[in-house]
Amino acid sequence: MKLPAVAGVLTLSLALGGTGAVAGGHDRVTTPTLTGWASLPAGTFVPGSEPSGAKITGNTNGYAVPFADQPIQGFSGIVKNRDGSFDVLSDNGYGNQANSGDFLLRIQRLTPAFATNTVDVVGGINLTDPSGKVPWALTRPDRVLTGADFDVESIVRAADGTYWIGDEFGPYLLNFDRAGRLLAAPIALDGVIAPETAARTGVPATTNSSKGFEGLAASPDGRYLYGLLEGTVNGDVAGRLRLNEFDLRTQKYTGKRFIYQLESPANAIGDAIAIDDNRFLVIERDGGQGATAVVKRIYLADKRDRNHDGVLDKTLVVDLMNIANPRHLGGFGDQFTFPFQTIEDVVVLDDNKIAVLNDNNFPFSTGRSATAADNNEWITIELPKSYRVLASR
Fold this sequence. Notes:
- This is Glycerophosphoryl diester phosphodiesterase.
- By secondary structure, the chain is mostly beta strands.
- It has one domain: 5 Propeller (Tachylectin-2, Chain A).
- About 5% of the residues lie in helices and about 35% in strands.
- The strands form 7 sheets. The protein has a 4-stranded antiparallel beta sheet, with no helix packed on it. A 4-stranded antiparallel beta sheet has the order 4-5-6-7, with no helix packed on it. It has a 4-stranded antiparallel beta sheet with strand order 8-9-10-11, with no helix packed on it.
- It starts with 11 loop residues before the first helix and ends with a helix.
């Protein structure tokens, strides 16, 4: 039986190969161009939620801890809804297990308002395990999941409304219903063990901390998931990341594995989404922010490996440090840069437009100002015809 298509995943002809006019009716751009900018202020919280951040230490950039409520920050995955809103995944919290036990894992529902450069928070759900699918002890007896339980970094929504989420502490695949309730036990990846799992099980780690499923993509027919690790597995060539195929019909990995080659072993990926059966948009970034930010890019990665070098073919789509901004959106100049340490969300909007969001690691990241916590910025980028022609070859 053919599975239904996954919501939010478009074929290549729609994602990068259309011929529609640029929004607003002006001529098509000749270089990646900023067409929208919106910002959610740092320190935006879920009203009437729970205190958070009691175990944070270090420089909090002016925010007193603990916070009275849960922050709506740390965006690490995005799904487009039909009504113009987006489901955005907040990641594990404050950077590690030890300080994130009071950060509730949550899918936020947001709507950007580019006319006013703002982002509206319109809802959200907490992630929970009421049926006891996780076989080990959780942080909370009520089985509301926290950043000490999982580091959720990537998300796909199936046509039936359930969510598949990639975790970095396992790394695991997690399947939640539309209300955020875990539907099955976490699914491990053979041969890849994060230090957090090693500490719990005694099995030696095979990768570094927080280097699990940073990217999670779905094939257009809804049959397969593709989980892209953020870090290299021990024994693999430095800078080579495994992309693993998972069959939703059998609920098992198929054994097919592809390799994404980083431009430098010091880089990391921030997100990966499918645009057709063979190609993905992948965010690749260095660890710099502000003045030290250099590599913040989106590549088109093709698993067909046409040059037979054993890795995904890569084509640069957008240099996020060099985006044309002729309208001076956001109050920035002719050249717009996205100088954030972590950029972890890309989503296709229409035939030649994508949106990109940063993860602001609230309250720690300081990409815009060395003395102020970063906001969550939400940008849209128009792609030139040359990229669409290249992608359709």
